[in-house]
Structure prediction request, 337 residues.
Amino acid sequence: MPVRTPGHDRDVVNASLLLGVAVGVFGLTFGVGAVSAGASVAQACAMSLLVFTGASQLSAVSVIAAGGSVASALGGAMILAARNGVYGLAMAPILTGSLPRRLLAAQLVIDESTAMATAQRDPDHQRTAFWVTGGTIFVLWNLGTLLGALAGTAIDPETYGLDAAFPAAYLAMVVPHLRHRTGLLAGLTGAAICLVLVPFTPVGVPILCASAAILLGIPQPRAEADSPLQEGTAGVP
Amino acid sequence: MTWTLVLVLAAGAYACKVTGLVLIGSRRLPPVVTRCLALVPAALISALIVKDTFSTGTELVLDARAAGVAAAGIAAWRRAPLIVVILVAVVVTALVRRAA
Prediction:
């Protein structure tokens, strides 16, 4: 999601809240998906509270749903979680303060809070955008998960086409990453690796192997800046 | 789904966040590492899309999901909001499945 650069605090807050609401609604989908993958309502909620990084949660749940092992579910999810470490590096200069405060901030370091913060010009607005976006998404993502998990036990996801909701959500998340050449190449390579391996390897392994596509980042780019922080992401936390 | 998975993933995900923000802080990583990590979402999420659209377990399948996800792809590329992208996928998949 392209993020404008609002000049006023109120604009920052409004934009952050709006994004939070959109992501919160998506929490519903995660809740439904997690429960239909065999998670209990408590497990779905614990995941959203404690893991709180959507792509990893979705990935873990969909590998398990497809019959994959815990190890392969964990592997793919952890590789996806690693990017939050990179976001944390970028946020470190503005998120200063006491250790408890920074430990709390760490849990909110996700795609959206980082994208929203880095879209602001001065450190004050960056801090506001980070905390408001991260906080709003945290509350609504967890509320959405709870409601979705409760509803998910009562409906058959396939009847309503809900099994297409995960890949669709991934799509919305990945598009901003594919708008530059290296990203597109990595995306196509990752998808191709996965497709080729699906019939021959245990569930979850194709996803792990697809991560080899990140090696396309090794050559020095010529003009293009490939910083992950230039990309606003439309996705989930 | 097991509690082991939930708790180990929770610990691992938080460790990643803390490592970046608190432990490494503003020290810089080698540019080549940063460039590779920047490609993680593109590579892995694309793979997840393909898996969730074209496979059931270890079998490649072409069913209603492909139509739904293709429609969602068009919506996402045209920068439709997240909710719209998901709704398009869900509705098209359900309709195609019903028609089949």
Remarks:
- Chain B touches chain A through 77 residues (CB under 8 Å).
- The CA atoms of residues 68 and 89 of chain B lie 4 Å apart.
- The helical segments of chain B are 3-24, 31-38, 40-54, 64-77, 82-99.
